[in-house]
Fold these 2 entries.
Entry 1:
Amino acid sequence: MIARAAAGLFGVLLAAPALTAWITPGTVLVPLGPASITAEGALVASRLVLRVAAGAGFGLLVMLTTRWTDLLAALTAMRVPDLVVATLAMTQQQIMSLLRTVENMHLARESRLLSAAGTGAERGWVVERMAFVARKSLKTADDVYDAMLARGFSGSVPTLSRLTAGPRDLTWFVLSVTACAAMLAIDRMVFPV
């Protein structure tokens, strides 16, 4: 939910200039000079925000309903380069490790603090912890790369299950493409911009 809200906020920030008459001329709703908000701009901006939120929601749905290893195997089956798949696999593991580190640091500080510190001290502690996490991330990345080279990493990620496309997959693909084409056609009929 947080990822979808963040994507929606990012979409709003990207779409904000499209609201203005300077970017999208049309019927003025809120007169602000060259930054006046137009009805056409509001339509364009709302459509962009809704598309970004829908795309983020779909991506989140796939991530939450598919095991990570199956998702990586599916990317390999779709001929995504091995380097990209390996990077995604290691990035996910690294992020989880760093999140555990940050959580442990925060819990350790909370358990040792008797009173609240000043805002300057709090900001200083946060900056120090950010620098520590960045250093740890770089060191871990170097260590992992050295360990992979020592074990003969060749660039491909071995998986236990090999995915193959069958008739059900082809049917699902055709239905998905048809549904997307229908939605796009409806979008073009409703919003002929």
Entry 2:
Amino acid sequence: MIYRLTLAYDGTEFEGWQRQSRARTVQGVLEQALQRLSGGAEVRIAGAGRTDAGVHALGQVASFELERVWEPPQLLRALNGLLPEDVRALELRPAAPGFHARRSALGKHYRYTLDTAPVQCPLRRRYAAHVPGPLDVSAMRAAATAFVGRRDFAALQSSGGGVKTSVRSVTRCEARLEDAALIVEVEADGFLRKMVRSMVGGLVEAGRGARAVEELRGALLARDRRAWPAPAEARGLTLVAVRYPAPTG
């Protein structure tokens, strides 16, 4: 049976999502736990997003297949009993035949958090990057509009992605102030490697007055990674949710 799993994790102590032979990864610890529950048989998991080292998740989705049929609540409890404390299985249910966490996804929602206080609050250090303010939020909001729509985001792509095209459709990119932090919300049909962090890197440059909005628009159109600001830190990024087609019938 194919299962669909929603999970959350603190990415601080992980070398990202994707399985690596000599590194602690989210996919790796999940597969180890499921292997124990399957009596030692190898279980392979597909994740909706291959989050990088240090990136967090509130609503990552994974799919996997088990020969034994479990009641979802029982499997959820058993899985959480084996997982480390920085990963939690939140919801688990049977999936339709052919469901794949990444290939079946219609879009993803990421959130980036920036602590803009002069001195970073230590309670935020794992989940927010620190960029001492003040930042020009109006300039950042104006720059964010450059990302919305169907665009070629080659200028924001880091090496190692291995994708066929760098064209993506961004439906939302918004910045807001909340409790002495600047929150950036981004939704799209898909993301390139470090794309959201590169978007935030550009917004911060606009907020500091180091790059004009039109300069950023020009760099985006030029499709040249060397002309774009450096990506923001991984620790501020969280995968909030993954969107799928509504069930039919």
